Amino acid sequence: MRHSLYHIILLSLTAVLFTACQPAPDEPAQSDAPPIYVSPNDDREYGVLELENGLQVIVVSDPEADKAAAAMNVHVGSLQNPDEQLGLAHYLEHMLFLGTEQYPDPDEYGDFMSRHGGQHNAYTADDHTNYMFEINNDRLDEALDRFADFFKAPKFYPEYSEKEINAVDSEWSMRRASDGFILFALNNKKMNPEHPIARFRIGNSESLGDKEGSVLHEEMLAFYEKYYSANLMTASVVGNYSVEQLKEKARAAFADIPNHNAEVAEIEVPAVTGSERKIQLFYKPQMEMRLLLLDFTIENNLHEFRKKPNEYIAYLINSEMPGTPAAYFREQEWVDSINASAQENAYGNAGRFRIQLELTGQGMEHREAMVGVLFEYIEKIREEGVRTSYYEEIKQVLDNRFQFLERSGAFDYATSLAASMQHYPLAHVIDAAYRFDEFNEEAIHRVLDQLTVDNLRVWFVSPEEEVDQELHYFDGEYRIEPLQDSVIANWLEQGREVDVSLPSVNTLLPEDLAIRPIAGAESPQKAVQKEGVTAWYQRSERFHEPRAEVTLNFNQAHHERDLRQRLAASVLVEAFRLSQQALAKEASIAGVDFNLSVGNGLTLGMSGFNDKQPELAQRVLADFASYEPSASRVEQVKDRLRRSIENQNRQFPVQQLGPRFGHLFSVPSAEDSERLQTLRELDVADLIQVRDALLADNYLRALVVGNYSAEDVEELVAAVQQIVATDASARYQRSPVLTPRAGQKLQWQRNLELDDSAILDAFIVEDTSVQSRAKTNLMAELMHNRFFNQLRTEKQLGYAVGVTALGAREHGAMAFYIQSPVASTAELLEHFDDFRADYLAYLEEMDDEAFVEAREGLLVSLREQPQNLREEAARIRADWQRENYSFDTRLRLQQAIERLSKADMVQFYQSEIQQQQNVMRVLIQLQGTRFSDADWAELEDAQVIEDIGNFQRQWLQQE
In the chain, fewer beta carbons within 10 Å around the N or the C end? Predict the structure, then answer.
């Protein structure tokens, strides 16, 4: 299960650009009381009801919804854990899924969801716990009945207690060496020790269990009885029924959830006291990274969402226009990224405002000066930057975005609505993040007055930090020192040596938001066809908005270049990307994103409001054509890519499996050691040479989906051709992949520096027909839930467990995967084999109704309409890239699945999974340090790959 309490920590490592928006309508779009403000671009109908038990519900009627969804949010979370059972709220969330009075079988809920195209999940946050599901529309009543019973009569079987403690422990173990989770835990641990935020919250086998004076099962029941009360709950239901029908369904499901008139005690102690402020925290990360973080504890000002004081300040700090600190730091080559953001309720009764900088090696030498520069800039904002012109610019950004607010799928939408109801007035659960109703100087200055040196916690994160303490429950080492006045004075003095200025006007804000006429074609059409150039476009009939998804591929056989040239291209494009961050941030704020990448030649992608896209494309490509990185910039990027390669080995083991599999089959590849050696040898001359090669002799392929006419596409193509040369004799070339061979078995294996082990056991069908892909997709759908239940729930082998269909070009493929803290790779493969040995009998005994339900569930997912323009464009792009100009791959896959019978799947399982007649089998295994003395898993007669480059060359020679 997903647990967003711990997702929050990703903000410690990932820059989050402020992109919230302002609602355009002055009046609510619906007549229900209380009303709900919705985007003019949203044609769904909304309704609200408050049941007699105090539970508030939002329903969303969407006639085009292919699936229904619901969520239940309980306004209690990890902050309410009892001291004797840390992690109890999370543990309770796990236990709740294991059977109810009406549905006592612990596997019934998951099996029901699996049979009917559903998915379900939950997460435990600090102040709430959220449960959600998605299901085929025609099964919504049955799903709600099962779902609602969790909150009325859960069984809480004592015999599953130990297993779910192990499940929580596995989840903790998977994260204990992750820098993001460690930083999150360390920050909270160093808050006021009297505040509940300072406690361990995810839980593990040490913190959960029977203790003197505290019996876990009794504590859990008491927690449930105390807090799982209708008056603390908010719910949402989304489906293709009318508003009144959805209200009746919600009433039938939720009206008899007990109301205990529960109360969650207010947190009265401060999040920080004097001893937790004005400190320096030094952390030595597991991955190689260098961060500087200015961290301020602020008042919880969530109630001021209409005034946006935090976002206003973050907007100015994030700007990279000339004269701003971010621009200066980049010019000095001190930073790779800068991000300011706020979480208003990070600590319940207090919030957090952070300025995070990802540093270069050179930047490490100037990090104290950067602190001074940022405080100088904050002072300038305080004195000169609180002005209506910035308010109006931000307001325009917000207006534009809310005017054409993008949809999300029913599952995510239901989840977010139920959570928002706990934090915002009901009328504003949709638009709260987008409103900027007034320019309020007082609110902005209140926040600025808290961004002071006396309220500072400054973090220094790098492998070079001196540490003297270990963090309990996590694999982190750190040191803490008070921030002396003399130290701060020195930093501020360095900051005053740099002149900083406030940002200028954003020049990329869209001016023309007109919608082009519908073209009338149901599939993409050619706008340009001539020697060296092909351009396709599709005017979306589903999304009438002034946005477009643009792909410009300057195709050439880049894969035929040697490793040095390919790596030089990667370094060049990354160096250029860093040089364009000011433009990228300005464009992103204005509602359009761009990305220049290199694969088989250059590819420029643009997404968002289409008005300034042609201008942006010309500007980016012209800058690239003349770009010459400095020697220091090249070294900076080489170091960045080196860290990326080396840090991959420190990711969660389960996160490494997919990329390792793809690396094996994508031609050409090389071992990390060869890539690192070649990377070290690169210089500026290599980059200039490859830049010139990338700009010449291209075959231009363009795809535009969205608010363009054929004439617009022609003009765009003509403009970029003036910058990047095309060749009339060039032809489109796709990146090669290894062709699977039936009967071949491959093994790739590596030791890890992390505790856990992980394996991926893949079966790739030699046949490239759509029928083969249909069978692997349906087989993965049929097997996943049972595999999960047996290996995760029953055997407790790990937290991340599953069966999935794989992308293997035109070949059907599926894989079994797991990350485990308790078993070696050899033991894990034995469990896989045992499961597969028993599964045939289960499949043969499956009744026809259950099979049809599972097949229909997969089909509903495939038939689901795209939720936004990006999703629509991604589907079209997939066929465009494989040169299927009928654009019907998804339809043909649906049709093939519709024709599959249980007998077909039994035969497929026997021949392809059991006997492995027409498949290649690939085993990727990563052995954790806990199992360093254990044997590797072995496939009989398998080829063990020692060097990927040599393996691929030999493989291709045999074709």
Answer: C
If pLDDT is split at 50, 70 and 90, which confidence band does 617 have? very high
Count the neighbouring beta carbons within 10 Å of the beta carbon of residue 117: 27
Number of neighbours of residue 447 by Cβ within 10 angstroms = 23
Point out the least confidently predicted range of 15-19, 816-820, 901-905, 948-952.
15-19
Residue with tokens 């009339």: 728
Q: Which amino acid is at 582?
A: A
Indicate the pairing of strand 279-284 with strand 335-343. unpaired
pLDDT in tens, 915-928: 999 999 999 999 99
The secondary structure element, H or E, covering residue 413 is: helix 410-423
DSSP line for 527-563: EEEETTEEEEEE--SS--SSEEEEEEEEE--GGGS-H
Q: At what angle do helices 889-898 and 770-788 cross, to 10 degrees?
A: 70
* Token pair of 912 as six digits: 């392809």
pLDDT tens-digit map of 132-165: 999 999 999 999 999 999 999 999 999 999 989 9
**Residue 34: pLDDT band by 50, 70, 90 thresholds?**
low
DSSP structure class, residue 264: P
What is the rounded radius of gyration, in angstroms, for the C-alpha atoms of the chain? 28
Return the structure tokens found at 948. 């990927």
Q: What mean pLDDT comes out for the span 890-894?
A: 95
C-alpha pair distances (Å), 793 with each of 46, 95, 163, 164, 788: 38, 11, 7, 8, 7
Which bin fits 203, alpha (ψ -120 to 50), beta or left (φ > 0)?
left
- Angle of helix 631-647 relative to helix 563-579, nearest 10 degrees? 110
Question: Is-contact 35 377, C-beta < 8 A?
Answer: no
8 A C-beta contact, residue 578 and residue 336: yes
What is the chain's mean pLDDT, rounded?
92
Q: List, in sequence order, the alpha helices (H) in 176-287.
A: 179-189, 216-227, 243-254
State the burial class of residue 101 (Cβ atoms within 10 Å of its Cβ: 0-12, 13-18, 19+): exposed
Degrees, nearest 5: CA angle 340-407-417: 75
Q: Is 49:250 a contact under the CB 8 Å cutoff? A: yes
Displacement of CA 173 from its chain's centroid (Å): 21
Q: Who contacts 915 (Cβ-Cβ below 8 Å, separation ≥6)?
A: none
Rounded to whole angstroms, the Cα distance separating 409 from 864 reads 10
Query: 804-807 contacts: CB < 8 A, separation 24 or more?
Result: 804/780, 805/773, 805/776, 805/777, 805/780, 805/781, 806/661, 806/762, 806/764, 806/776
At residue 26 the predicted structure's pLDDT band, cuts being 50, 70 and 90, is: very low
The two tokens of residue 235 are 């719910």
Vertex 335, ends 573 and 586: CA angle to 5°? 70
Question: Running DSSP on this structure, what letter comes out for residue 709?
Answer: -
Preceding amide of 668 cis, omega within 30: yes
Cα–Cα distance measured from residue 772 to residue 900, given in angstroms and rounded to the nearest whole number:
11
pLDDT at 666: 87
CA distance 338 to 676: 27
Q: How far apart are CA 658 and CA 655, in angstroms?
A: 7
DSSP-assigned letter for residue 323? T
Alpha-carbon 668 to chain mean position:
28
Write the DSSP string, 905-947: HHHHIIIIIIS-SSEEEEEEEEE-GGGTTSPPP--TTPEE-S-
d(CA 107, CA 789): 7
Rounded to whole angstroms, the Cα distance separating 613 from 591 reads 10
Does the pTM of the predicted model rise above 0.85? Answer: yes
Angstrom distance (rounded) from CA 893 to CA 302: 47
836: its two tokens: 């597969």
- Pair of tokens at residue 523: 């599939």
644: CB partners within 8 A, 6+ apart:
none
